[in-house]
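Quick illustration for those who missed Monday's session on complexes.
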Amino acid sequence: MPQTTQANLIQMLEAAAHDEHAAIIQYLRHAYMMGEGELACEIESIAREEMRHFWILSRWIVRLGGQPPTQRGFTDLSGATGPEWMQRDAAAEERAIAMYEGYLARIADPDLRADIEFILGDERRHHGDFVHFADKAALEMQAEAPAEEAAEAPAMAPVDKDALEWGVNHEYAAILQYLVHSFLTMDKDEEISSQLMMQAINEMQHMGWFGEELVEGGEEMPLTHHPLALPTDPQAMLEADIKLENETAAMYGQFIEKMVDPGAKGVIDDARGQELYHENLFGRLLKRLKPVRSPSEAPTTKVWTVGTLKRKP
Ligand SMILES: [Fe+2]
Ligand SMILES: [Fe+2]
Ligand SMILES: [Fe+2]
Ligand SMILES: [Fe+2]
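Prediction with fe (ii) ion bound:
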């Protein structure tokens, strides 16, 4: 097996994490563009598996001494119909399979190999799924082609479009921020880590609601996100997450007052309710980090930083 230096290994894992990030966004975008239905649900569940891959790879990168990866790799935005999007997704899986097979030829660490093999198994299954979805989408298109052409969606009100786009930008940032915070807190507190992962999935649902509304209104889902807050200690992470939820609930509240379309307004209002829940939940998690101590106990002033997470292999 050829020698792979630690720096090389980090670079390889970063490239893979960037591609997993791209897969999440590409698949979600396609799921929303397919509209409601069985196929959209199945694509969304594949996107969730890509989230898990992103999480696993990111954790390795930080363990090996790298920075949490937040860049997005190549995202294929081409294609105009369901079958074309599914072909693009099958092609993305082919690229991932080739990459991970190449990695296995260069990686010796048995634990990392086991994780890559697990991811590779998923990608092979996803490839088969997308090939099948392309056929299914083609059949669905043939079946519904004549009836659906006539109805053109009326233009979306600018205020609704602004709210939904702002919402997608926020939810995208929240997904990434909570995923990063989740793998950074894993060694410190599993409860906090798994809660952050679950809320990242919940934010993905919000992004789905808004993305579908935009697509139904004849608009595109934005592919950019608001800036991320990535401090290095868990307390600062949770404080940043609480602030984000608080500001977002307030912003959604302002949008709701001006929005016109009941459907669009409804999804923003539903998300607002859940952001308030997130704010409360993160507040409870923050208390876990700051236990109330009796005066007899020696105060611990240990500062927990990202450095302490790095486990040199
Ligand atoms: Fe993946
Ligand atoms: Fe995949
Ligand atoms: Fe959200
Ligand atoms: Fe939230």
